[in-house]
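A favour, since you know our structure tokens better than I do. Go ahead and set the record down below.
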Amino acid sequence: MRYMKTTSTIKSILSGTVGALLVLIAFIIYNGYKDDTSARTDIRQEYEAKNEIIPPIHKTNNTPQHAVDLTFAAEKSIDAVVHIKTQILGRSNSYDDFFGQFKEYFHQYPQRQNSYVAFGSGVIISPDGYIVTNNHVIDGADKVSITFNDERETIAEIIGVDPSTDLALIKVEEEDLPFLTFGNSDDVKIGEWVLAVGNPFDLNSTVTAGIVSAKARNINILGGQSSIESFIQTDAVVNRGNSGGALVNTTGELVGINAAIASHTGVYEGYSFAIPVNIVSKVVNDIMEYGEAQRGYLGVQIQDINAEFAEANDLENVNGIYVAAVVENSGAKDAGIAQGDIILSVNGKKTNSLSSLLGLIGQYNPGTVVSVKVNRDNQILDFKVTLKNKNGTTLAIKSSDSFHNELLGADLQQITTEEQNMLNIPNGLRVNNIANGILDKSGINDGFIITEINGVKVNSQDNLQSALSNTKRNIIRLKGVYPNGARVSYEFML
């Protein structure tokens, strides 16, 4: 009996002990889980707090571009760019006028008294030897020598020049030459890769690469109101001797002619400028066909719009260019464009600066009809404008139609039928490029039309010379009319 009681007691004690242990284990497990849950909650709250500070990362669908391969463009262009050496016996004033701080842009050094040799580059544009370069490379040259990439040398003939764009066309008597084809500079994009090919520091066949940094740049180096500055700016390395060389795209197409650098030291500092090939193509074609470049004019005086100008004139934004005045008898006047209009585009191309407008209009000849979009008092209007030349006509002006007279000191050109009708005169010779002579001393300006000398009506080189020979007592009596219709008479003592 006692044994059975003891056994029962032991069982009770064991049962209580096991129960206590189970409760203790449950308590420990519960507290551990609670602590773990609390810790994870603290970590999650900390993570969420950090996420409030760090912006979310969004994936993009854009993939990185592959490396640009420029080897094809280099191989295609290097043989089509030549080295130009010009011998200048008498250094022209235009050399100093053109360059200013850029006068060291291409290499030159004195050979002997009043004689210089200058180096530059040129681009072959046809298999029969036509080469385009800068006007300042061959300006005043008495001899132009060409060296090809294979070291062959030959003499070049100057076909024509256009100082207003700083372009010149020369030719060598060669056949089957490598040449570059024209691209479209209007399609060139900022950030696009380009190559500059030329002969810097008299080093033949040098290629440098960069991107297009800006378009329609005006750096005010050409001078003159009729000059066209609408450069392509790049960061391709260009130095002295690159002048007149090629700017090509990645497919080896010519998109510009390298012309200048912006520099305080005379060497490359990160900015180089090229003439857009659309202007180059137009000037080259004009020189080939007419002997000189044909310029179409819109016939407006314009003002760039900035924030200050927009505020002063109650303009809503700075888009476009402001028409400050419209020239009488111009294409713009005939079409209905008025002072105060804001030109937004020409043929669909935006015009936000003077240089962009000059670059666009500079691609067209007189007689071309262009579409001009303007903002007039917040109303968008479209005009069809027929461009005219500097004489107010739509006809081409050929250099072969003009001649020079030493006594008068000017070039003279027969007027057109349109000018005769407009001014109501039966004949006349227009005065251009006045230099040293009796016209310059009298204060007569370019554009004046001589109708009569010494009582003889003049309309050609022959009857002008005949009229001058009719001078009596060393007095020349001259009559004429200005483009605005003002009629004047002059007397000169020889």
Observations:
- The radius of gyration is 38 Å.
- Residues 88 and 141 are 5 Å apart (CA to CA).
- The domain at 80-171 is CATH 2.40.10.10 (Thrombin, subunit H).
- Residues 2-53 form the longest helix (52 residues).
